[in-house]
């Protein structure tokens, strides 16, 4: 077999692998949309669920999913970025740094149910917060932080060292070089890691069962007092996310239209994740152009 044949065979294998991935993904999305899109309307998206009769919606669950995403990422992104900067620029290959990397890899492989039980012990019981959005957000932070630290470290290490050396040669300090040169150059990879982490937050259910809870109080969306139990902005209230709601209606099956609610909820979840990914990538490219003056 000559080199040209080997090259064509390898290229065909690469195209076949990519095609299989797209085929599996497209089949999965098409199946979810086929069964769920007919159940979606404005009432279904905005109204609260019904526990006894048919006709329930998923409005509070959608809001809870976005709210816990904001809480989680507002905690995870700064800590993950600072941890990645430390490992990439300051830690080097010391024993402590290697110990941190081993700990991060170990935490990355933890099942989400274990993180949920840890959150139940620490954030629910020890802190006294009970089942709440904050408990769920902190549990998801523990779950996602190792991945964010690793992505941040790899993104920063992928930046050309000549850029950093040129900045230092012009008289910039190390921190100025990191903030003004390295971070903007690593921004596309950082955005990709943040998008993947955000998608995991949307789809996570096991860790939230033991921390955020499986029910939500009746919410008054005209009440913006964050200390009120009925306020949607109260971070210390129980909250059922959309992924938890899908698991709950399928496992309990106490409503007559459980299939309709489950299929519609799954389709909405997929659409939200897709829309979030597209918007986040568009915003990431816009910020990258501003940072790099393209």
TrEMBL record:
- Tell whether Glycoprotein is among the UniProt keywords: no
Bilayer disposition of the protein = Multi-pass membrane protein
Membrane-spanning parts: 12-34, 66-88, 100-123, 266-284
Recorded GO MF terms: phosphate transmembrane transporter activity
Q: Where in the cell is it found?
A: Cell membrane
Name the protein family. Belongs to the binding-protein-dependent transport system permease family. CysTW subfamily.
| Stated name of the protein | Phosphate transport system permease protein PstA
The record lists the organism as Desulfoscipio geothermicus DSM 3669
């Amino acid at each position: 077999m000559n080199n040209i044949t080997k090259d064509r065979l390898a290229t065909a294998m690469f195209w076949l692998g990519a095609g299989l991935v797209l085929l599996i993904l497209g089949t999965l999305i098409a199946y979810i949309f086929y069964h769920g899109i007919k159940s979606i309307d404005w009432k279904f998206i905005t109204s609260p669920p019904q526990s006894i009769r048919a006709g329930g919606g998923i409005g509070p669950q959608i809001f809870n999913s976005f709210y816990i995403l904001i809480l989680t990422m507002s905690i995870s992104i700064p800590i993950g970025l600072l941890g990645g900067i430390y490992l990439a620029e300051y830690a080097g290959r010391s024993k402590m740094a290697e110990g941190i990397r081993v700990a991060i890899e170990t935490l990355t492989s933890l099942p989400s149910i274990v993180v949920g039980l840890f959150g139940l012990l620490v954030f629910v019981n020890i802190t006294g917060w009970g089942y709440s959005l904050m408990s769920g957000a902190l549990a998801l932070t523990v779950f996602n932080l190792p991945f964010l630290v690793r992505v941040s470290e790899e993104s920063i290490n992928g930046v050309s060292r000549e850029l950093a050396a040129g900045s230092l040669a012009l008289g910039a300090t190390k921190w100025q070089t990191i903030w003004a040169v390295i971070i903007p150059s690593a921004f596309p990879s950082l955005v990709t890691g943040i998008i993947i982490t955000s998608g995991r937050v949307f789809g996570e259910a096991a860790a939230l069962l033991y921390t955020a809870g499986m029910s939500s109080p009746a919410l008054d969306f005209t009440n913006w007092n964050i200390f009120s139990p009925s306020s949607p902005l109260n971070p210390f209230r129980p909250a059922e996310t959309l992924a938890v709601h899908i698991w709950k209606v399928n496992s309990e099956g106490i409503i007559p239209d459980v299939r309709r609610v489950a299929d519609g909820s799954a389709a909405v979840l997929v659409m939200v994740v897709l829309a979030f990914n597209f918007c986040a990538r568009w915003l990431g490219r816009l910020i990258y152009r501003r940072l790099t003056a393209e």
